[in-house]
Specification:
The protein contains 14 helices and 13 strands. It is α/β, with parallel strands linked by helices. It has a domain of 163 residues: Rossmann fold, CATH 3.40.50.300. Helix 1 packs across helix 9 and helix 10 packs parallel to helix 12. The mean pLDDT is 86.
């Protein structure tokens, strides 16, 4: 990888640069608040902050009981904004997610009643327990930040973040997320089991009351919007862009994958790298940022061929090999 001390800003435009100090202050307060609840998982918390600042959506996958929903709620409660929780179940309807028009007998007119996605932070719990038809209700709002019901389009307020949890697909009562749904999540992370010290602290402090009860907001939607705008001004050199495209292009050309990374995945990778660079105190992206984030941003979108799957080659392993073989320009 390149030397992080080198300056890849050659040819950088002159406009205003990102206020990385302001981003660090906002992210630091959120991180400290979330880590009061989620102990011993700094990488997972960092991934959540990256997705928030990059205007993406986060998919948290793991077995039940490891803190997926706790992380989602802790992040949501750390921001003083509207929060809605949707419990995905097999009988959940698309209208429960997006909203429905109801006829008012008094006014003799139809009135729109918003669904669960009308919030700044939407926590979708166990998203893959709902049917693919209900899951598809999230497609428009996650990509276009709007909802269309009965030929009327309703805009969603920014920031808009979907944090969804899912159980492993091999567990009972789950449906595999469709490719289009997975592609709309900027990143996927796994919680994993806590280390012994963190689990011991949890047993000592979480048995009498939930730590979420004392969690107060440490920032608001307006401040998050300013941080997001500042992240957008982080510089990405042409060489770094070519490196990111080299990785996504390698997934499309791989003989072990029947579905590679989409152009949306390339965009998500660069946006996530800009947010990560800002969290590191830089107003420019280096190739190491891209390589570090590529597994969480790309792996959940990839589908191995039947032969690769039979050989035990997962998307994560294939991607790791591809990244190692992509040269840095």
């Amino acid at each position: 990888m390149t030397d992080p001390t080198s300056d890849p800003r050659a040819g950088a435009p002159a406009p205003a640069t990102a206020d990385v100090d302001a981003i660090a202050r906002v992210a630091g307060r959120i991180r400290e608040n979330v880590e009061r609840v989620i102990e011993g998982k700094p990488d997972v918390v960092t991934a959540a902050l990256v997705v928030l600042l990059a205007e993406g959506h986060l998919l948290i996958e793991d077995v039940p009981g490891v803190g997926k929903t706790m992380l989602s709620k802790a992040l949501a409660r750390s921001i003083d904004c509207t929060v809605r929780r949707i419990q995905f179940t097999p009988d959940l309807l698309p209208s429960d997610v997006t909203g429905v028009s109801v006829f008012n007998q008094d006014t003799r007119e139809f009135e729109f009643r918003p669904g669960g996605v009308f919030a700044n932070v939407v926590v979708g719990d166990e998203i893959n327990r709902a049917s693919p038809k209900t899951q598809s209700a999230l497609l428009e709002c996650m990509e276009e930040r709007q909802v269309t019901v009965d030929d009327t389009t309703y805009a969603l307020e920014t920031p808009f973040l979907v944090i969804a949890t899912q159980n492993p697909v091999e567990m009972e009562g789950t449906y595999a997320l469709p490719e289009a749904q997975r592609d709309r999540f900027m990143a996927r992370v796994s919680m994993g089991y806590p280390v012994l010290s963190a689990e011991l602290a949890m047993l000592a402090g979480h048995t009498s009351a939930s730590p979420l009860d004392d969690l107060e907001p440490v920032t608001d939607a307006a401040e998050v919007r300013k941080a997001i705008a500042s992240v957008g001004r982080v510089h990405v050199a042409d060489a770094v862009l070519r490196y990111a495209l080299g990785i996504t292009g390698a997934t499309r050309a791989s003989a072990e994958l029947r579905l590679g990374a989409s152009p949306r995945a390339s965009l998500h990778l660069v946006r996530a790298a800009k947010a990560f660079a800002a969290l590191q105190g830089r107003d420019y992206v280096i190739p190491d940022d891209v390589a570090l984030l590529a597994p969480s941003v790309l792996a959940h979108r990839l589908i191995p061929t039947l032969g690769a799957a039979e050989a035990g080659r997962t998307g994560d392993r294939i991607l790791a090999d591809l990244i190692a073989g992509v040269p840095v320009a």
